[in-house]
Write a structure and sequence with these properties.
The chain is of the alpha+beta class. It folds into two domains: about 5-55, Signal recognition particle alu RNA binding heterodimer, srp9/1 (2-Layer Sandwich), CATH 3.30.720; about 70-120, 2,3-Dihydroxybiphenyl 1,2-Dioxygenase, domain 1, CATH 3.10.180.10. The chain contains two helices and nine strands. The strands form two sheets. Strands 5, 6, 7, 8 and 9 form a five-stranded mixed β-sheet that branches. It has a four-stranded mixed β-sheet with strand order 1-4-3-2, covered by helices on one side. It comes from Sphingobacterium zeae.
Length: about 130
Amino acid sequence: MSINHINLVVKDVDKAVNLLTDNFKFNLVVNRNSKMAVLRDNNNFVVVIWGQELNNEKDLPQYPKNFHIGFYQDDEIAVQNIFELLKDNEELKIESAPKKIRKTFGFYCYFENLMIEISVNPFNYE
C-alpha cells in the first residue's frame, strides 16, 4: 500500500494550481471552474486542490499547527535554487532564507495558511 494523493483546501484554486505547476513540476489534470483541481507529478503523486467555497466558507482555510507539505531536494544547491525562484513570489510568505533546520538544510514558506517545507532529504543529508 502507498499513499497516492493529498487534498489541500485553499481559498484561491487558480493561484494554488499556478504555484504547483510553475514551481514544483506538477501537471494539471483537470481544473473544474476554479473550484477544484487535480494535479499530478512525475511520480504519479496526486494533489487535489479543493476550493474553500465548496465548503461554503469564505475565510482562508485553517490547518492544524505544524501541518505542512514538504518537497525534498537532492542537495543544498537545489534548495537554494528553489528559494531564488520563489523569493519574489507575491503569493508566498517566506520565513527566512535557507538554513540549517533540525538535521537538514531548507526553508519554510506559506501559501495562504498552508506551510510548505523545502529541504534536503534528512536521510541523505550529511
